[in-house]
Amino acid sequence: MTQDWRGAWTAALDELEMDVATIEAMLADEHRHAETPPADIWKPPTELGALPLELKPRADEILTRQLAAAEEIARRLTANRQQTAMTARIETGEAVKRPVYLDCAM
Asked: Is the separation of the CB atoms in 77 and 35 below 8 Å?
């Protein structure tokens, strides 16, 4: 039973680690993965009980990687917003769009 419990946790961490690796790959090569989000979002398993003590270092390492990836995503979103705002202020060289006529009848 202990081996089944440990095996279930190992499999759960394997899945979670693959999910983090996918996100890290997307961050490393944004052009290739820009329009291909991960198909399967990791869902925590149920009924596993407590994490085996010998798997804690691995779980901690995966958590550290998740937090680093989330921080990088937030940084890139902020940079993207700033770039969008700056781009909106750039003059394109086109004439400023003004009304073609003004109704003075009133």
From this structure: no
Q: Is the pTM value of this prediction over 0.85?
A: no
DSSP state of 35: T
Query: What is the sign of the dihedral through the CA atoms of 23, 25, 30 and 33?
Result: negative
- Note whether 67 and 23 are within 8 A (CB): no
37 and 84 in contact (C-beta within 8 Å)? no
Per residue in 42-99, pLDDT (tens digit) is 777 788 888 889 999 999 999 999 999 999 889 988 988 888 888 777 766 666 666 6
Q: How far is CA 15 from CA 12, 18, 59, 76, 93, in A?
A: 5, 5, 12, 25, 51
Q: Which two tokens mark 44?
A: 């925590």
Find, among 60, 58, 68, the residue nearest to 23 by Cα: 68
